[in-house]
Write a structure and sequence with these properties.
- The chain is an alpha/beta fold and 426 residues long.
- The chain has a domain of 106 residues.
- It is 49% helix and 9% strand.
- The protein contains 18 helices and 7 strands.
- The protein has a 5-stranded mixed beta sheet with strand order 5-4-3-6-7. The chain has a two-stranded antiparallel ribbon with strand order 1-2.
- Strand 4 and strand 5 form a beta hairpin.
- The relative contact order is 0.13.
Length: 426
């Protein structure tokens, strides 16, 4: 072209396969639940009236709803907070109707088959080294009607226990990197539910660490054999200063910077992968001077009357000093966490349900929700695929009932691999 002469040079070369293949990714949309209709040829004998149907394709049984369908509904409802009626509307628009009542029947039936795994999850949680617990308000319509306050004297209205609120308690148990999340909805507070879980703890185990905010309802009276080492949440203490920072900017700045330094040390310990004992020594070396200086400053503010005790800042200081031994447990006890944030994040599952679905209709509905939230969030805490886990529990319901301990979120894949290997070798 334009007088330019092109020369084609023929060269011989050898092609080698690359370790990393070229990738093309195509994302497609699809309904959360899909249905396939199989029309089977059907013949009727005019003599005896017997009907003969053609065989269905392999894998198509008599069950209308596949295990994956129940897992998806449960994951959307109790994992992502999508109410039944919203999913029903979406499926209706996509031409695959699935009424809310049908969804409930499916998850209720699925939950019953998973109950052995849930009960084993509670037993496993009871053996933990560190426990976090807290609760949030919840509403159960049937209980609300039963405990509706009546007019008249206290005797006519009933006992205070009958008029107690309804809560969803969250409990997160940690042990050697393994974490279990449990949810319980009803009239019991977090401390009472924690006591019931701890009752399944094996005898002879050392006293665990319990971390919660300083509310008395989080710490039940336990028998001597179930004693725990109590710690309080530094995030709650810090939040009290955050709430009044606009009124006391300089004072709160010093406190918040002190907390930031301690949390920075904890982040460094985690990045370095320190053991609980090494982390304890690290905090004693780097965080103890900060904490001791902070304690002296807090005490001085009240002792020298630099702060009005009834002010917002005074209340925050008094809270810290009143719970100082529990707030500084991480400087004396290996493995003691700084805060209760892990269970605060877990309770967002319940808060999301409350925000989108508003309430549970019955106590049975709340128990089903607790079961699924516990299994789903325990999967997330242990980096397991919750959808796959719920599906496999249904497919192997008989094995789960016989030996639920090998069907936990952290070991069920190994159980499946061993079963598959045994099948091939057999």
């Amino acid at each position: 072209m334009d007088g330019t002469v092109r020369k084609t040079i023929e060269a011989k070369g050898k092609v080698y396969a690359r370790k990393e293949p070229a990738l093309r990714i195509r994302v497609v949309g699809q309904a959360p639940l899909a249905a396939t209709v199989y029309e089977l040829e059907s013949l009727r004998c005019n003599l005896c009236g017997e009907i003969f149907e053609a065989e269905a394709p392999e894998g198509v049984g008599e069950k209308k709803y596949d295990e994956s369908g129940g897992a998806m509904i449960a994951l959307l409802k109790y994992g992502s907070g999508i109410p039944f009626y919203r999913l029903a509307g979406l499926e209706e628009n996509l031409g695959i109707p699935l009424p809310a009542s049908t969804q409930w029947k499916i998850v209720e039936e699925v939950a019953e088959g998973m109950r052995p795994a849930f009960e084993e999850l509670i037993r496993q949680a009871a053996q933990g080294e560190v426990f976090h617990n807290d609760d949030t308000k919840m509403k159960i319509l049937s209980l609300s009607r039963e405990s509706a306050p009546a007019r008249g004297s206290p005797e006519e209205r009933g006992s205070s226990r009958e008029c107690r609120g309804v809560f969803t308690s969250g409990i997160v148990s940690t042990q050697q990197g393994r974490r279990v999340a449990l949810f319980f909805t009803g009239r019991r507070h977090a401390g009472e539910n924690f006591a019931q879980v701890l009752a399944q703890r094996a005898a002879g185990l050392p006293a665990p660490i319990q971390v919660a905010d300083a509310l008395s309802r989080n710490f039940p009276k336990l028998p001597e054999k179930l004693k725990v080492i109590v710690g309080n949440c530094n995030a709650h203490a810090r939040r009290r200063f955050v709430d009044v920072v606009s009124n006391f900017p300089e004072e709160c700045r010093y406190v918040l910077e002190s907390f930031a330094e301690v949390y920075g040390n904890d982040a460094q310990a985690e990045e370095r992968g320190l053991s609980p004992e090494e982390r304890l020594r690290f905090h004693q070396e780097h965080s103890r001077p900060v904490i001791e200086k902070l304690h002296g400053w807090l005490s001085t503010q009240l002792a020298e009357k630099k702060v009005e005790p009834n002010s917002g800042l005074g209340s925050a200081i008094q809270y810290c000093l009143r719970h100082w031994p529990e707030l500084t447990l991480f400087l004396r006890q290996a493995g003691a966490p700084l805060d209760n944030n892990i269970v605060e994040r877990a309770l967002k599952k319940a808060v999301l349900h409350r925000k989108n679905s508003l309430f549970y209709k019955t106590l049975n509905g709340a128990e089903v929700g607790d079961l699924f939230m516990s299994l789903i969030h325990s999967c997330e805490l242990n980096s397991a695929n919750a959808f796959d886990y719920l599906t496999e529990l249904q497919k192997h319901a008989e094995g789960v009932a016989k030996n639920p301990s090998v069907w936990m979120p952290w070991n069920y894949r190994g159980t499946l691999e061993r079963a598959e290997a045994a099948l091939h070798n057999g």
